[in-house]
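Convert to structure. Protein one:
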Amino acid sequence: MTSPSWPDLAGRLTDEGHVLPVRVYYEDTDATGVVYHGAYVRFFERGRTDYVRLLGVKQSELAESEEPAAFLVRRMTIDFRRPARLDDLLDVVTTPGAVGGASITLTQTIRRGAETLVSAEVKIALVSAHGHPLRIRGALRAQITGPPGVHTQLS
């Protein structure tokens, strides 16, 4: 159970999807204090991981289950619009899109206040330990395909 105060460590499910606050640290920047492009990929990963976690799926439990599995990035398209800088407070917003048999397409944005800095479309796939696609079933599928703002943590 998460605290009702904002920001929660794993972010929060809202009407627009999952929102994760991220602070820009020195390690995220280049010599000029601008966020290095690879750091945005890490920010997006944190957003996706915490989004799925709040839906009740822990990556570590998937990996250690009777049928080991993992969500992997299949495709990512990124649009860099404006730079973030050292000490900025950003929001990583993850919004679910199409759900296929073994894949989920997500839209992710990184914002500073109301300003969109970077956006991405990311397709993730559920695969077995041997790399074979696995169907997304049951409660997880229902959570992802449900209307925004009505997500509840799975048991």
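Protein two, convert as well:
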Amino acid sequence: MPIRALLCLFIALCLPGFTPVQAQDTPPELFSGERRVFVANGYSTTRNWPSVLQRKLNRYFNNTQVIEVINTYESGTPIAKWIDLDAQARDNKWRKTLQPALASEPDFPVILLAQQSLQWVFGEDRLEGITSSTDQRRIDQGADAIALYNQFAQEDGADLVFMATHIYKKVQEPQIENEKYALEEALGRNLPNFYEGPDVWTPTFENFAVAFARDEIHPGPIGDEIIAHFWMRRLLEFDGKTLPGWSRREMEDAIMNGGGDLSDNKVPNADIQASATSGFAPFTVTLDASASVDEDGVLVAYDWSFPDGTNDAGEIVSKTFNTPGEYVISLLVVDERGDSDTATITISVADGSSAVYGDATGDGTLSARDASEVLTHVVGLAVLDGTNATLADVSGNGSISSLDAALILQRTVGLINCFPVEPGCD
């Protein structure tokens, strides 16, 4: 049996559910002078460096865009948020953002530049990670996640995949640095068309004092310049080409000049919109931070904190509450300079075991009086709140309107047998 066939069989046996991708005999040249597409993929720390890389690539080709950089970053979205590791399937963000970018160029090579992280791969706590170089169980677990990510990327159109792990992250060391052990394990499996990206941890660690925004988590302008420089160097090395001296000088100039004045930065504004603020257990609410703004820049992080001690990240998240109570949810947004703002919202969850939908009066029964109560609320002569308001929304659209009053009245006279909000009601 040929060596390549034996290798593919070995990978398939070691990683259940893994379908080998056929390796290219000769990888495409990246800097041939013909069109190439570089798809950058990552989380909030990949917000700005791809645009710096695009500037460097254009300069390399005499101010002509021969290589196009497409940035598919999503805030708070490491590997475990791009793919469902348990189901071994692409997540919604992958299908919406990354998949179309990888399939965007059918005639020329598409190269995935993945600056990724293993946060949330090992459990519900994003701070849980590889403890050391001897933590083989988590190292293998991380390598499996990387291998699956690589497989999906190539199935969706990537000709080559370069993988770099996380930049330095002071608040999450040594777990973040230790992600390199999982990458080394994945590279040792000789996955087809899969290559090591640049080491971005070391230069951001060495330049920590100037490379990061004020939050000491996200790279500032200097950090973006440093990261782009090392990506440029790695990609040229792949082709056996020399990095122009001007790339290092650009990075050194940024370090020397301080990356701009942070004192003029405007603080962002956090805003939370919820699909509903009250309901019956188990109650699932969708939380939307897309109305949050940064007047003079961009938001690079949306971090959610829940009262049960769990966290999530991203513009839009969902949370399920299984027991009655009042729950205060917190949102932290961070801009590209590290300034932040916080907003909170309270979700009320009631015991729905004995609730009567449509009972706007709260007397435990359903009658025409409830429809009247809803109409009184709609015209502004009364206010329904708390459990009564939740029960009054029989349409299930998140608001109380004359439609709800009509549905309640129809139910009381027997024209309908159930409300749209009730499970199983057609």
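DSSP finds 13 helices and 15 strands in the chain. The longest strand covers residues 325-335.
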